[in-house]
Amino acid sequence: MTTDPSQVQLTADGRLKHFLTTEGLSRELLTEILDTADSFISTQERDVKKVPLLRGKTVVNLFFENSTRTRSTFELAAKRLSADILNLDIAKSATAKGETLMDTLWNLEAMYSDMFVVRHADSGAAHFIAEHVTPNVAIINAGDGRHAHPTQAMLDMLTIRRHQGSIEGKIVAIVGDILHSRVARSQIHALRTLGAAEIRVIGPGTLLPRDIEALGCKAYYRMEDGLKDCDVIIMLRLQKERMQNALLPSEGEFFKLYGLTEEKLTYAKPDAIVMHPGPINRGVEIESNVADGPQSVILNQVSYGIAVRMAVMAMAMSGQQQERNELAEQNIEQNNEHNNEPDQEEA
Amino acid sequence: MHLPDIEQTCTELGQRLAAYLQQNHIEQPLLVGIRTGGVWIAERLQQQLQTEDGVSTLDISFYRDDFTRHGLHPQVMGSELPDSIEDRHIILIDDVVMSGRTIRAAMNELFDYGRPASISLVCLLDIGRRELPIQPDLCGVRLELEEGQLVKLSGPQPLQLTLS
């Protein structure tokens, strides 16, 4: 039986010990992540970018799915926290030789790993590992299937907060393939908790989930309507494989209707910011003039990504360590009690 | 236990710091307060000495050696230092010096910003119980506390000492 992932990721006193999803986390905790990340941005601007927080800890990047940006920013984040990091290209290694996922993980745990950064094509993979496989290793979800991509969502929240002052009261539009997007799902939960005034999703009906209104979003099918008065526009990457499933007529058609051009950008507020989780398909979901334009904060997102990942890794490691210490203390107490018991044979 | 008068202690500490700077030929000191109490004391000293740069602040949360035991401080506020501390004479200021671990962490952090010409340590109170070979160059008052007793500075307006 699996429990609520938002609870699995917390210690008994409500601190982070894994980071699996933004869903169900309190506003205070999400704000704490953003505040901590803000402090890490200042350390990133120094000549020496490292801080010694995770010195001696071992972090393993476990990417069962390809990724360049997320994997390398996690790697940099771990290095800047002074942790040792191991990058495993799982697709090419053990599992390809027939070893099960669980055996791979138990082997890595036996190497005294402290944290796994997991990306997997199956929804719920990180949660499963945290709850059933290696609960004493801090698990950071770097994207699981269509479910969640919480660090991406939090770096987006940080971007909005730094460029628009706050998230509270802002109108945010997410554009494109919402149906298959774990990024969108995590963003929506975080935006709601942090008090966005309105969350809009814009896209063709085939790419919007049916239950989207239940998540607190308004659905729009035309950019002109959806972008009106927006403070923040988040473009999602159009995954080309969707085209093969006949969910979309063609790239050209999609760009015409939903591609962000300078003209469509004028529907939003004049100081609206344009975001994209990357990698961008120029000319498919976004025009180059907009991607490179003055309202684009796409590259800032990448820089903030390191700070957010440092924050989440430091917080989860600290919660995890706290639990390990408590466990060790309990074991000592139990051993003492056991040793003090009168010997059966002698008695 | 009789606690010292803060205003008077700060004023005297400021006078002694002025003399210390003169004696050591430090013309442009950089006052760095350790969050949170150290910053309040640094601000008091800055008002009195009117040093050229304002007070810089150091948040040592990312440098603590007890992180794995106590975790991250819930409110990390970050450090604010000038672009370069290279070859600067730093006056590191804290409210209470005890084990010396905070000062060690602070010095580690400072060296990640650059190579200062010197660091001098100034504190309002020294309550002993040192665990590292670190001693203040100037200290307002030395207090002998009873075992298990701690002293805490609250502020910034007014600055107040309480025993716990």
Write a structural description.
The complex is a heterodimer of chains A (347) and B (164). With 347 residues, chain A is α/β, with parallel strands linked by helices. Chain A has two domains: 5-148 and 303-328, Rossmann fold (3-Layer(aba) Sandwich); 150-301, Rossmann fold, CATH 3.40.50.1370. Chain A is built from 13 helices and nine strands. In chain A, the strands form two sheets. Chain A has a five-stranded parallel β-sheet with strand order 7-6-5-8-9. In chain A, helix 6 (150-164) packs across helix 7 and helix 6 (150-164) crosses helix 13 (298-340). Chain A is globular and about 80 Å long. The mean pLDDT of chain A is 90. Chain B is α/β, with parallel strands linked by helices. Chain B has a single domain, classed as Rossmann fold, CATH 3.40.50.2020. Chain B has four helices and seven strands. In chain B, the strands form two sheets. A five-stranded parallel β-sheet of chain B has the order 2-1-3-4-5. In chain B, strands 6-7 form a two-stranded antiparallel sheet. In chain B, strand 1, helix 2 and strand 2 form a beta-alpha-beta unit. Chain B is globular and about 40 Å long. The relative contact order of chain B is 0.20. The mean pLDDT of chain B is 92. Chain A binds chain B through residues 15, 32, 35-36, 38-40, 42-43, 46-48, 50-53, 314-315, 317-319, 321-322, 325, and chain B through 59, 61-63, 67-69, 71-72, 74-80, 108-109, 112-114.
